[in-house]
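Weekly modeling sync, notes
Attendees: S.R. (lead), two postdocs, one rotation student

Agenda item 3: backlog of single-chain predictions. S.R. asked that every request posted to the team notebook include the full sequence so nobody has to chase files. The rotation student volunteered to paste the first one in as an example of the format we agreed on. Action items at the bottom.

Example entry:
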Amino acid sequence: MTPIRKETTIVRNHNPVEKTILTILIIIILLLSASIFAQEAKKIIYETDMCADVDDAGGLAILHAMANNGEVEILAVCFNEVHPDGVAAIDAMNTWYARGDIPVGIYRGNLSNPDGSGYLGYVADFPHDLEDADAPSALEVYRQVLAAQPDSSVTIVSVGFTNNLNDLLIAEPELVAQKVKELVQMAGVWNDGFNLVRHNLVSVSQNVIENWPSPLVISQEGGNIYTGDNYQYAPEENPYREAFYRYFGSNFNGRSSWDEMAVLYGVRGLSSYFSEETSGTGRLPNGYVWQMQSGFRSYLTNRLSNSNYEQIIEDLMDQWPIGAHFNVSGRSGWLPFQVNFDASITNMGGGRPVQAYQWNFGDGIFGDGETVTHEYTAPGLFDVQLTVIDNLGDSLIATDSIRVSDPVFSPIDYFGNVQNYEQSQVDLWSTRIDSNDLRLFLSNEPRNSEEILPGFSFIKDSTYSSFTLSLKTRTGEDIPQNRFADYVIIFGYQNEDNYNYLLMKYTTSRLVNVANRLSTDIARITKKGIADEGYHRISLNLSGDQFAVTVDDSIFLTAASTRLAKVGKIGFGSHNYAVFFDDISVSGSGTSSIFDFADNIPTQFQLYPNYPNPFNASTLIRYDLPEKSIVHLVIYNSRGKVIRQLETGVGRKAGCHTIMWDGKTDHGLDAASGVYICQIHTRSIQKSIKLLMVK
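Predicted structure, as returned to the notebook:
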């Protein structure tokens, strides 16, 4: 790694001929490299200063990918920086590839002017079990790991500083000479500020170069090879994605690939990738000069084009951990719900091909193929299982869940999402949120109070004088109860004492002005209301003193009055039975601040009371994140025992999130009636709420 590297945004464009040539070259490279995969896996220790730059993370990623291919055995990772989150981040990166047992050693000495990091703290939030205080020293790891390996079998790929290597060389020179086959050092040959001179380590680097007993190969190429931008398509649970995202200030870009190139050589050797230069000299700023010599000291030059290396490295970065994996086009939706399943990200390991993809969609229907489409025709929660079988007959299994609901809402795109609404009197009515497309509906059953008051949801930050409000409504599924339903449309809302409301009931409807808590009927209509099981289009128009309501393209109510409050928020709600609102739009004079979900970021962390509470079968848990975080959401029983892990180190974007607890334990058993604790925590925040299950 270099101390200071210029940030560059690269846009790669290739015409069809160039793309064809590029594809042919990659195929040739892969064929030439096939013999590598058939050989015994190389034994690698990764020495890294993963901190200021992110190509160290990229180097570790492709090292794991090549381990998946059977090309390499990762013996250990040693950290030569002193950042407090370094060990945890490295362990999290190893854990992502199911190699959390790889030893991680840390430099325990003093380092002049240690570097900061823009991403290690975030990556350290990902699942791992090793912390800085518990990590052994790098010297201890080297001693134990090298002693257990055959003679002349270990390659050390160093993409950081030489402090750990120097400590090893001073303490165990015979062990190094006996066990280490080659040292690959990412550095500059001609004193260009690379890793040999940083942190006042010039004399340390001289000792390593001068006295290292096995061949030392210097890799310094990669400055114009940009990789890592593909991580924008990786899942948020991938810590390498998080590293690149945070390094670029919550964005994605390609980064120079110095460290990835050193790893590529360390594992695959010269092959068709590199040439080895064995003549000339190298130098350090203290005046030390060394002579290149075949089989002793040398450096690498590239044989391929930059775009060739970029594709090779990106293909390795894109590789998932070994296992059956699949993507879905959506995990919840309304009937009929069509889902696309894609298992092309499955990785059997060792380069073994998949011979069969077998799908169980959870609704009694089965399928096969790498990519399949299935349509769910009944509501429910369906457990999908994928079984992949390789050419040796070995199989791997992956599962996921698909939730399908009755179409309470229409499929038409609508105004905003629930982030655009402010809830009022939450304890008196219920707000339910579909977690897939963030649609909102109101339900008054069960209520937490005997008071008969309406529950409202206001269009956020809206202030209108004249307006047209359009929405679609529907009452609950229990048709005999729908005669108790009503719709309440609020407008000109200034505060709880001053507003207008339109009440549409099954029996009659009226327009009311509330001023200083005194209610005055503006207009009544004896026409039968609209509480039934069907969808209805409602349009309200206030222009001057004229107010008109249209239902399903027919005039429902007209009124004229100067008493109406002309300026204020617009909202909607219900007094009684469940009423659903959808396709909401509003226009008119005045002002309105409409927040898109991506821009409407909460200002503070918040865990809200679950709904409903008490609950019988399931309950919704809602929380706000002011920034992207790794979330752990756990349900404890009254004795403090974990019974359900709803979120386990999952990366979540900033915004409002909801998750349902179905009242079951992690073992699929029904939880008993009683009090439970829901605890959510991120790296810096922890909060809890109480849940009451009553059966």
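Discussion: group reviewed the output briefly. The domain at 606-693 is CATH 2.60.40.4070 (Immunoglobulin-like).
Action items: rotation student to repeat for the remaining queue; S.R. to check formatting next week.
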